[in-house]
Amino acid sequence: MLKPNTNYKNLKDSYLFFRISQKVNNYLESHKGDKVYRLGIGDVSLPLCDEVIKALHEAVDDQANKATFHGYMPECGADFFKKAVAGYYDQRGIKLSEDEVFVSSGASDELGDILDLFDKSDSVLVIEPAYPAYVDANIMVGRQIIHLSSGKENGFLPLPDDNQKADLIYICSPNNPTGAVYDKKSLKMWVDWANKNKAVILFDAAYEAFIEDEALPHSIFEIEGARTCAIEICSLSKTAGFTGTRCGYTVIPKELEREGMNFNNMWVRNRTTKTNGVSYILQKGAAAVFTEKGQEQIKKNIQVYKQNAKCLMQALDKLGIWYCGGKNAPYIWLKCPDNMSSWEFFDYLLEKAQIVGTPGEGFGSCGEGYFRFSTFGSVEDTEEAAKRLVELFSKK
């Protein structure tokens, strides 16, 4: 007799952003004509850059001609895409062979799919506050989850404890939701801990392009020893506006092995079994991100989002509200004023200023009392939200 996966019973009733959407829709239903200023879900507002659009059009034209038509693509990625990614890493002094690079349909998909490489009995360490999918994806397979809380006292960047044991660990840097970024010394401590304990780090580098401090690492593979303990997962969603286009990449070094099994070989087998790859058109557009013109153009877009961050940080500074993030990340993590809970603060901002953010409690229990602003909105909406924020709390 068929048995459903009962691990789904252990999931929370609704996903964080679904609950936010319901609350906003209910507000708009009872406040016809009001506009809300969305600083919540991290979706981009600027279109794909010209170089990407040009490549996408050229790829579509290729598909219209027999001589240039492409059918199934290599499941692990087209050579031109893998070469482009490897070249991008080479600019930072990281040497990758092209067969260590795998194309993906984005980091969100890959962070769940990559769990196929590990046994269900493996325990997973999640640094919280955390992107909710880290926890939910592991609950779905019944894996033991160890929650490592962080807080204001350590800048939301906890360090490993020799007494802590786990088989897998998620590290997101720059972090979603806190915007905090590990320096090389701290990442080296995590790499050493993982190698010592034969654990594997799943390094989420989705926001690396937002780092402006030269001393901060963009990749786990800038750290000595990472090639024997880490997998890096990256996305073009926020880097280049691919949230609706869907393309990313994963790096699995050939040295990464456990119990005589090679994870690079295993992922080749997984992808060639479970996927038909990413389309030629999308990979051509994605490869254009890594060209000289593509990099110039996406950096201009990133600067718009970073200006949004500065606008919000100036407002918070004026109000004396504590926060982290913003400078090297597209998220700002703030302490809710007046000892409000995170959902109380959500409701208060929505009702009084029509501002939508993300309650910290949705990223784990230690996120209670904190709140996340995204900087991916339009310049006009962000400036208006910052103005309303100052006006609201200046009156109190």
Give your account of this protein's structure:
This protein has 396 residues and is α/β, with parallel strands linked by helices. It has two domains: 12-41 and 294-394, Aspartate Aminotransferase, domain 1, CATH 3.90.1150; 50-290, 3-Layer(aba) Sandwich (Aspartate Aminotransferase, domain 2), CATH 3.40.640. The protein is 38% helix and 14% strand. It has helices at 16-30, 50-63, 79-90, 107-113, 132-140, 184-197, 237-240, 263-274, 280-288, 292-319, 342-353, 379-394; strands at residues 37-38, 101-104, 124-128, 145-149, 168-172, 200-204, 230-235, 248-251, 257-258, 261-262, 323-325, 331-335, 355-356, 358-359, 370-374. Strand 5, helix 6 and strand 6 form a beta-alpha-beta unit.
N/C terminus separation: 62 Å
Any idea what the shape is? globular
Number of E-type strands = 15
CATH class of the largest domain: Alpha Beta
Which CATH architecture of the largest domain would you pick? Answer: 3-Layer(aba) Sandwich
CATH topology of the largest domain: Aspartate Aminotransferase, domain 2
> What can be said about the biggest beta sheet?
7 strands, mixed
How are the SSEs ordered, and which strands pair?
Blueprint: H1 16-30, E1 37-38, H2 50-63, H3 79-90, E2 101-104, H4 107-113, E3 124-128, H5 132-140, E4 145-149, E5 168-172, H6 184-197, E6 200-204, E7 230-235, H7 237-240, E8 248-251, E9 257-258, E10 261-262, H8 263-274, H9 280-288, H10 292-319, E11 323-325, E12 331-335, H11 342-353, E13 355-356, E14 358-359, E15 370-374, H12 379-394
Parallel strand pairs: 1-13, 3-4, 3-5, 5-6, 6-7
Antiparallel strand pairs: 2-8, 7-8, 9-10, 11-12, 12-15, 14-15
Helix pairs in contact: 2-9, 3-9, 10-12
